[in-house]
Amino acid sequence: MVISAYQVNNVLRVYGDQLRQGRFSMRPKTGNSRSPDMVSISAEAKRKAVIDKVASNVIERIAQYGPQENVEKEVFQKLENEYGAQLAISRKSPTDLIFKAIDEDGETINSLSIEDSKFLRHKLEEITKETVNKNMM
Asked: What is the number of alpha carbons within 13 Å of residue 20 lying toward its C-beta?
C-alpha cells in the first residue's frame, strides 16, 4: 500500500485542527494560567510501594551478608521451614540467587536446581513482603 505525501499532509492538517479546537474549548475563560496535572496515589498504593522497597532491601541484605537482623532471620527461618531443610544462599548474578541445601550435620551442601532456586526466590519475596507488612502495622 502506497501512501502519498498529500494524504499524510491531510492527516496532519486535520489532526492539528482537532488539537487547536480541543485546546480552545478546554481553556478557562477567566485567564491564561495553566493548572499543573495532578497525580494522586492512594494510601494503599503508597503502602504497597514502601513494602516492596523495604522487602527488596531485606532480600538484598540476605543475599549479600546472610540473615543478620531479626527481620532477616525471621524471613529466612520461614523459608527454611517451608522448604523443610537448612538453606544457604549466594549470588549467581545481580538478579539471580542460588540456593543450597545443607544436611543435618551442616557439612554437605547440595546446590538446588534452577527451577527450585527460582521457586525459592519467589517464596522469599512473598514471605518478606508478608513479614514487612505485618511489622509495619
From this structure: 6
